[in-house]
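FAQ: What does the model actually see?

It sees only this:
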Amino acid sequence: MSEARIATIYDALIPVAFLVLSLFASVRWFGEDSSYGPNQIALMISGCIALLVGMRNGHAWKELEHGIYRNMNVVFAPSFILLAVGMMIAAWIAGGVVPALIWFGLKVLHPSIFYAACCAVCAIVSLSIGSSWTTAASVGVALIGTAIGLGLSVEITAGAIISGAYFGDKMSPLSDTTNLAPAVADVELFSHIRHMVWTGLPSLIIALVIFVIIGLFSEPQAQAGSLEESLEAIEENFTVGWYMLLPLVLLLTLAVRRVPALPAILLSAMVGGIYALLFQQEQFHDDSHVLAQLWQILVSGYPAETGNPLLDDLLAGGGAANMLNTIWLILSAVFFGGAMEKTGLLQALITVVLQHAKSTAALITATVLTCIGTNVITGDQYIAIVLPGRMYKLAYREYGLAPVNLSRALEDSATVTSPLVPWNTCGAFMAASLGVATLAYLPYCFFNLVMPVISIAYGITNFRILPLEHDEGVAVDSGL
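And it is asked to produce this:
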């Protein structure tokens, strides 16, 4: 059997163009509901088109099928984590953990500083535990509820949460992506983090300043009376006390101790369920079926039937079943990305970009744009780090640039823009956890939007771009 023909840029543009047009039509026709089926269909059909192009180029179906199924391995962990997060959110609401966090937030946080405080708190928590996902699914959920109680924008709040969470994630040596990027580029971990401070810290400061300005000019929609009603409704329907925060402390402790996310979140969900049985018995209407009711809450989410409409809006949500659509979106995106990668179409796109990078500024710009494009095409931040990292590694050395410049560029683009793509694993997770559509919070993720721009600006001005002979530290070849 003859070998497959190498894909050209024109081959690659066929499925990409179809995807762009179909997603545009999906959003235009279905609006906010586009992520509940239409986008998935667009991704799956686009993936089929990529496979047809690959087969026309001589790839065997069995080879492509095997490659795509193997690529699906990246979906398993996020999918089970999503299901666990849905259970944890529901259990924490029923157990009074989320209501208590909202109660404390309504008592302490002033509307004028709320957005900036959200960003700062999430940055500190994420830096401590090294996980933007865990931060958003725990502290972030409570902050969204607090924003509703204060009459503030949930879209801006989600942007502040994600901005802070991703700064902390990028600066933490506990983060998986912060370890992956330097491993791909053969860079020592702490050299990578030190180099990333130059783009990460200015981006965070800019984001905080913008959130402060927005807060100063924001007019909360909630009146003082409705705020007091929300506080009273929480006190009437839930037991509130400092010990309600212990499940959050447990989750953060497990994360700091490097316990894997899935067992840590499942254990936290179990503790939330125990809290519901111990402290929130009034939530269960039939004592003979308490466990069955709790079981149903873990499946379908907390029903929020408190009699207070505002409190019901604050607390309705969670449940493993409510994460299934998000998992479908992730599966569809990884199917399309896998088809593009296994047929060589993605490599064809990257190769063309690499051929036009004729200077340091062009190379760094190309790296940033390639990572963003790979995030959009493959729907997975890990592929967006590893694939461009492999392809650009030699080019950085040929241009006399230290590998730490590559590792920083990978993080400045692939990692921080992943939650801005609706079908990316990160974008889908954030939308599902926070209850805010990706495209709705995207304009307010100031940290995530600014960081790639600063990275490109440094490349153009040659600021903090280290030459190869001044590399701070190169790791042993990781083999990635």
